[in-house]
Amino acid sequence: MASSKDLFARAKKIIPSGINSPVRYYDPYPFFVKKAQGSKMWDVDGKNYIDYCNAYGTLLLGHGRKEIISDVKKQLEKGTLYCAPTEIEVDLSELISRNFPSMEKIRLVNTGSEATMTAIRLARGFTKKKKIIKFEGCYHGAHDYVLVKAGSGAAHIGISVSEGSLEEASKNTLVVQYNNSKELQSLLEKEKDVAAVIIEPVLANMGLVLPEKNFLNEVRKITSENNVVLIFDEVVTGFRMSTGGAQKYFSIKPDITTLGKALGNGFPIAAVGGKSEIMDMLSPEGKVYQASTYAGNPISVSAALSSVKIMNKLQPKLYPKLEKDCTKLVSAIHDLASDMKIPHQINSISSMFQIFFTDDPVVDYSSAKKSDMIKFKKLFEVLLKNGIFIAPSQFETVFLSYEHSKDDIRKTISAYEKALKAVK
Ligand SMILES: Cc1ncc(COP(=O)(O)O)c(C=O)c1O
Question: Of 129, 261, 275, 375, which residue is the catalytic one?
Fold first, then answer.
């Protein structure tokens, strides 16, 4: 089998930058994957890794969960795409709505980007207003409406507004600081043409940044008072923070919700849903257009149905286990860094965390940017060398899965010890 180095040289000639999504690149070239199972990935060079990149938060139940693969195989025998309705689409939508009661009606789509694009168009159609407000460092996908001061890969590369984006689109996307409800309030006092506020209830695309006490309640209150649609982008937090996402965790009811990632546990599926009166604006009955050849495809739907059933069944032990493992890892890393006198912050919640090399608390984009990126790069490199794969950027999050074992956690702590020594 060709090595990662050789494959990357080939890839560079035919795929721009050699990868199919920007955050997959790191110096000098990424490892090429041979296979993955449970908490692990194997590369073509004969090495294996404990995976905390977790397909950017997708694989809550780990790679290749047996029941999901078996349900997908059964569906494969019956056909891969019909572009005509199926019973399992209805089953899945009902199940999602039971988990997320704010999602009274739901459309299934393929990616998180499609879900947020539809959510914003719906908000504009419903309110007959034009502008949207997002928070600096939140990432909602790679389309023009939201690719303004976005987190994730865009922040990593330092792109504030992508070249090629329509100025007309970015001009209508206003940006405020995360955890600053006063800024949101005063912007809405000035701007009367705002259709929606879109937010990651826990910001997982700038490293990890938590909402301060009452921030989300304030956002809910301010949007309601100003007749602005509140979109919770739960592409990361949906099913990861609880079976009812961040909205159940924090007891807040948005008007529209977007889901993706853990919904399909590795299969491409996402959802957009919300109040019936808003969702009923969709075509053909309504005048807001949304469509896709692959939407509701039976392969992804059977995977999601299987995943959600498993997460619901495992719920009493799933979330406590994830939280316990995450707390253990975080407190060990914090103790190590403190003993080594490395200035640091670790933000964590549920099954997510990230370390920042700074003295100051990280609560928004400007404080996240204060982290020493050179130290983070070193941390990533040494972790990788020691068989721990986290996302290669400070502006991403470390994700645990149900498959991470006690032995994985022990090995991870020991690798962080080596990495922190190198960073010191
Ligand atoms: C919060 C959030 N919303 C939307 C998206 C876009 O999802 P996708 O990459 O499936 O288009 C992402 C992707 O990382 C995300 O983290």
Answer: 261
351 lines ligand 1 (CB under 6 A): no
Residue 165 is predicted with a pLDDT of 85
Active-site residue, 52 included: no
* Same domain? 184 vs 100: yes
Contact 333, 413 (CB under 8 A): yes
* Claim to verify: residue 75 and residue 46 sit in the same structural domain: no
Per-residue pLDDT tens for 202-242? 999 999 999 999 999 999 999 999 999 999 999 999 999 99
% of the chain exceeding 90 in pLDDT: 93
CA 56 / ligand 1 centre spacing (Å) = 9
Of the residues 310, 325, 343, the one at which a domain ends: 310
Residue whose CA is closest, atom 8 of ligand 1?
A: 112
- Ligand 1 pocket member 141 (CB < 6 A): yes
Verify whether residue 364 is a known catalytic residue. Answer: no
CATH number, domain of 39, equals 3.90.1150.10
pLDDT tens string 93-104: 999 999 999 999
Whether residue 143 sits in one domain with residue 38: no
Domain boundary among 310, 340, 373: 310
Report which of residues 11 and 163 the model is more confident about.
11
Distance 198 CA to ligand 1 centre (A): 13
In a 10 Å sphere around its CB, with 0-12 CB exposed, 13-18 middle and 19+ buried, how is residue 423 labelled? buried
**88 touches 301 (CB < 8 A):** yes
Same domain, 156 and 89: yes
Residue 145 shares a structural domain with residue 92: yes
Is 261 one of the annotated active-site residues of the chain?
yes
What pLDDT was estimated at residue 157? 67
Answer for the pair 224, 158: CB distance below 8 angstroms, yes or no: no
- Among 343, 351, 297, CA closest to 324: 351
Statement: residue 158 has pLDDT above 70: no
